[in-house]
Amino acid sequence: MTVGAPHDLATAHPLADNRIVIVGGGSGFGLATARGAAEAGAKVEVISHSDASVAHAIAQLPPGVSGHAVSALDQAKLAAVFGDIGPIDHLIYTAADKPLAGPISTMPVDDVRRAFETRYFGALNTIGCAVEHVRRSITLTSGAASIRPRATSGVLASVCGAMEGLMRALAVELSPIRVNLVRPGFTNTGMWADLDEDTRGALFQQTANTNLVGHVGEAVEVARAYLYCMTSTYATGSIVTVDGGYALT
Length: 249
Fold this sequence. Notes:
CATH class: Alpha Beta
Radius of gyration: 18 Å
CATH architecture: 3-Layer(aba) Sandwich
Largest sheet: 7 strands, parallel
Oligomer: single chain
Helix content: 40-55%
Strand content: 15-25%
Number of strands: 9
Shape: globular
Structural class: alpha/beta
CATH topology: Rossmann fold
Order of helices and strands: EHEHEHEHEHEEHEHE
């Protein structure tokens, strides 16, 4: 099939038999997207940072999903993995560390630099290792902090803004491969697992009371945006925001 050619909507799901690699597929948005793509008939490969994370994901996903334990920052090993996988239709990058919170004006520069490691440089390294194998699309991830930062989310806003600029540049540079980005808001994922139950419950309730939709987002709701980015053959250079109306409150 020609890159970017429209699918026949009267036939099977447009992701059927597509090969999809999801970096960060061991949990959260990546895991939910892997499940949705596999259920649509895609051939899914998940990449996560550890054997335990990969095993955890594979145990929850439909039969036939494969996994690879490798850091998004390990150029040699990651390139070898993509070389073994071969041609892929879609690449998705959702890998992320827990956000670094605090006033950016007083944050040590080394801490800020580390905050860019997985989210930005991991994505950049992944694309460099994978681009020769990608046939149709790449989808990246930012966050609602890029357009509405709070007083303690300046670092996260900076990283997310950098991801959005990277996406636009790649959409031009890699054409006709489509490059898009999903911008999630606050979502119920393992990112908040370190909080005690009362703190987490209060945070979720505050978010539900503030969001225009009246509830905290779930990973499966955000995953639908990644599926859209893969299947919409006329979308490139686009940001799909899934934040419950956060940016408007």
